[in-house]
Amino acid sequence: SLSKYQEHLARKRRKRQTNKELKNLISSRLKELGKNQSWLAEQIGVSYKTVSRYSTGGSIPQNENFEKLLFALEVKIMPKSLEDLIENVG
Description:
By secondary structure, this protein is mostly helical. Helix content is 73%, strand content 0%. Helix 3 (37-44) crosses helix 4.
């Protein structure tokens, strides 16, 4: 069924190294800032569900939302892409 296929794709995305690194970054920065996912969603102008998907590695933000996410999490490095961020942080 379609929903099982979508679940399968989500599991595959969560296993990608890029998604894992972003998940870890979001989790650690929220903890350091004393904030939660609801706060982050409000800061970047997306739904809580969207931030939840970022935080579990189910998806990654694109372009403008990526920049807003980094700004909200007070990430000092402004990479061109998520891959650049992972190289500089990791």
